[in-house]
Design a protein that fits this description.
This protein is an alpha+beta fold and 442 residues long. It has seven helices and 23 strands. Helix content is 22%, strand content 26%. Bound molecules: oxidized coenzyme A. The site of oxidized coenzyme A has 20 residues, from helix 5, strand 17 and strand 20.
Length: 442
């Protein structure tokens, strides 16, 4: 028996009246499950709306230029059988599913969380790794305006590409997509265009099958977006990493005491919570670490709020949820929020808003191991704190070697904003706070 299925706009976060920038179905079309049927766009992100039911399109209720919100009816589809996928409702179902969230490694290192059955935010407008002006290496256009969404135009601008020079868009009705911009850059670079000036030579392609058996795995969207943003940071920011060690022997003793007092249902305090507290105290002392460069590189924008991004390892790749106004929260509150956010991250349930507004990021590998590493700044933030595994070490106290628990810390900073001496002083401050956490009360 055929059934009429409604496809509605799912939960798209706290945004309403989102622009419809493309509708790619009409009555009579046959759609497959997950096929993109429309594209929405906010000033932050574009989102593909996938068909949550397969079948023949009966009626389409939206058009380009409309504004939609959660629950707006997009189309009805006649299907031979009901498909129990989220995002679709048969006529008696009432609520569309939760969306998929996508973001960039933070305000820059793009990360995406992808749930196949949910709508996909295909790109974010979160700024890339750099605050510097886009490169002006690629030639300027003369032709007619290109057919592309604002997000793709932004992407092109960030990469210094004049979108009007990109011909033959591979999207619907010749629309230029991000991939077209990438192909244009690759082509321009491989041609060694004189207009590009000194380009970075590409890594030559190698046919690995000549050496043995191989298998190809598709990169997740998070991995691809993170990779893009990390590359941009790497190429645009002069990064310096400085290493330090903090004596956390007393801090750990205190942590064990308070954890022993907790019931099984209470969230335990990990060392990371004290590291967050120490980081905030140091940021208060050194406000240039709680800052971003203005896009023209002329001013430092000092932030008066303290939002900390925490890099979380998930099966789909790295994401950075942001803990907001951490300076106003207790150790227990931060521990609870971190547990909630990292669980949400691992379940692929973070919304774009959960990953925005960070001031500085912590990348803690301490639960895994390590002695030091060089994390990459989550621009437009200006620094990132790395943490690896604490280890008992013999420390000379002037008379004897005594066993002390030493925590390795790394700070990578944007050298345009932070001087080497400032980096060292900042880390000394963190080390002192962790060495005697009573100082956090002062
Ligand atoms: N030294 C020694 N032990 C440590 C430690 C350190 N620096 N940091 C954590 N641990 C211990 C914890 O105390 C905990 O021990 P118990 O199980 O005995 O209590 C255990 O390791 C696991 O901790 P955790 O990782 O679950 O918790 P956390 O608060 O330290 O970190 C989170 C939370 C979300 C940051 C972490 O789970 C995570 O995902 N880390 C990976 C981040 C990442 O991938 N970074 C790379 C980004 S590239 O720049």
């Amino acid at each position: 028996m055929s059934a009429l299925i409604e496809i509605k706009v799912p939960d798209i976060g706290n945004v309403t009246d989102v622009d419809v920038v493309d509708v790619s179905i009409k009555p009579g079309d046959i759609v497959a499950l997950d096929q993109t049927i429309a594209m929405l766009e906010t000033d932050k992100a574009s989102m593909d709306l996938p068909a949550t039911a397969a079948g023949t399109v009966n009626e389409v209720f939206i058009k380009t230029g409309d504004k939609v919100s959660e629950g707006t009816l997009i189309a009805t589809v006649t299907a031979a059988t009901m498909v129990a996928a989220s995002g679709q409702t048969s006529l008696d179902q009432e609520k569309p599913p939760a969306p998929e969230a996508v973001t960039a490694q933070a305000e820059n290192t793009a990360q995406a969380i992808k749930l196949p059955e949910q709508p996909k935010a295909v790109e974010t407008a979160q700024p890339p790794a750099t605050q510097s002006s886009p490169p002006e290496a690629l030639p300027a256009s003369k032709g007619s305006p290109a057919h592309a969404t604002p997000a793709v135009r932004l992407f092109a601008r960030e990469l210094g590409v004049d979108i009007n020079l990109v011909t033959g868009g591979s999207g619907r009705k010749g629309r230029i997509l991000k991939d077209d911009i990438k192909h244009y850059i690759k082509k321009t670079l491989s041609q060694g265009s004189s207009q590009t000036g000194g380009s970075i030579p590409p890594i030559p392609a190698v046919d690995f099958t000549q050496f043995g058996e191989i298998e190809e795995l598709k990169l997740s969207k998070i991995k691809k977006m993170t990779g893009q943003n990390l590359s941009r940071v790497w190429l645009n920011l002069p990064l310096v990493t400085y290493h330090e060690e903090a004596d956390i022997t007393e801090m750990e003793a205190f942590r064990s005491t308070i954890n022993a007092e907790k019931t099984n249902s209470e969230v335990k305090i990990t060392g990371l919570i004290f590291i967050i507290k120490a980081l905030i105290a140091a940021m208060r002392q050194f406000p240039q670490f709680n800052a971003s460069l203005s896009p023209d590189g002329e001013k430092l924008i000092l932030k008066k709020y303290f939002n900390i991004g925490i890099a979380v390892d998930t099966p789909n790749g790295l994401v950075v949820p942001v803990l907001r106004d951490v300076d106003k929260k207790s150790v227990n509150q931060i521990a609870l929020e971190l547990a909630e956010k990292s669980e949400k991250a691992r379940a692929g349930k973070l919304m774009p808003g959960d990953m925005q507004g960070g001031c500085i990021t912590i990348s803690s590998l301490g639960g895994i191991g390590g002695t030091a590493f060089t994390p990459i700044v989550n621009a437009p933030e200006v620094a990132i704190l790395g943490v690896t595994r604490a280890k008992m070490q013999p420390v000379w106290n002037g008379k004897d070697f005594v066993p002390r628990l030493m925590l390795p810390l790394d700070i990578t900073y944007d050298h345009r904003v932070i001087d080497g001496a400032e980096g060292a002083r900042f880390m000394t401050a963190i080390k002192n706070y962790l060495g005697d956490i009573r100082r956090l009360l002062l």
